[in-house]
From TrEMBL:
InterPro entries: SQ_cyclase_C, Terpenoid_cyclase/PrenylTrfase. This is Squalene cyclase C-terminal domain-containing protein. It holds the Pfam family SQHop_cyclase_C. Residues 93-187 form the Squalene cyclase C-terminal domain.
Length: 270
């Protein structure tokens, strides 16, 4: 993970925190020490950026929200950080990550409770009728749908909301219905990144031991990921999805999301 851009570092840390991935204590401490730089407007001079990205493609709000979420998850102190305000033009991904970070802040603070409620409403109101979300930064609906579903599920754990619960149920149903016969997901054709994003959402928001349909979907997804993980960068299963100057892919993050999804979907389920 070194050298690595602040966006990559914050995204990776949030992923580890979100799924409760066991990290060595020294690694976690080192990662926490490096995350505050992701809260700045610009990365430090000399820090490399994810392959395929350019300066204008990096969302400062998104990066800061991810960093705050990870820091708060790993910090037992009462003085937890608050994420940035939700911009009026926030994308689905940014809204989801800000809401996710707000779930780690004490709900007794009126301002944070209001901000969380606003983010929940923003996601509920932008959900498409069939249950998915879109985001202008990515060609596929699966990454934003996965992010919004996981954020709303966390919000429900903090404070029950019938509209959020319905939105999560609709998105899970849409994701399950969209799985391809080979176990993958993909807007154009099967890809590892889109499949991995859905696996993260299903494993985070649903208990596979209680939902046999989900358990079966995860087994099929695991089979696909296991067979395609070693595919080359030019293979169709690794088609770039993110809008930069052209369609691109943050390669290290794509590999990390896919690898952790392979581990999650491979967990024994009766």
């Amino acid at each position: 993970m070194a050298p690595v851009a602040d966006l990559e570092r914050a995204t990776a840390a949030a992923l580890f925190a979100r799924i409760g991935f066991p990290l060595p204590p020294g690694f976690t401490a080192s990662l926490c020490a490096s995350l505050p730089s992701a809260l700045d407007a610009d990365p430090p001079v000399g820090v490399s950026r994810p392959p395929g990205t350019d300066r204008t493609a990096l969302a400062d709000t998104d990066r800061a929200a991810l960093a705050v979420f990870a820091l708060n998850c790993w910090n037992d102190a009462d003085d937890r950080r608050s994420p940035p305000d939700l911009p009026s033009t926030a994308s689905t991904l940014a809204t989801a990550h800000i809401l996710e970070a707000l779930t780690t802040v004490a709900r007794s603070r009126e301002i944070d409770r209001c901000r969380a409620d606003f983010a929940v409403r923003a996601l509920v109101e932008t959900q498409e009728p069939d249950g998915h979300w879109a985001d202008r930064r990515v060609a596929s609906p699966y990454p934003p749908t996965a992010a919004a579903t996981m954020a709303l599920a966390r919000a429900i754990e903090s404070e029950f909301c019938a509209e959020a619960l319905l939105a999560v149920s609709r998105s899970i149903a849409w994701l399950l219905a969209a799985q391809r016969p080979d176990g993958a997901w993909g807007v154009w054709h099967p890809t590892t990144e889109e499949t991995a994003c859905v696996v993260h959402a299903l494993c985070t928001c649903v208990n596979p031991r209680a939902e046999r349909v989900v358990a079966a979907a995860l087994r099929r997804a695991h089979h696909f990921l296991a067979g395609s993980y070693d595919a080359g960068e030019t293979d169709a299963v690794r088609t770039p999805l993110w809008h930069y100057e052209d369609l691109g892919s943050p390669l290290r993050l794509e590999r990390l999301v896919t690898l952790t999804a392979l581990l999650l979907s491979g967990a024994p389920v009766p």
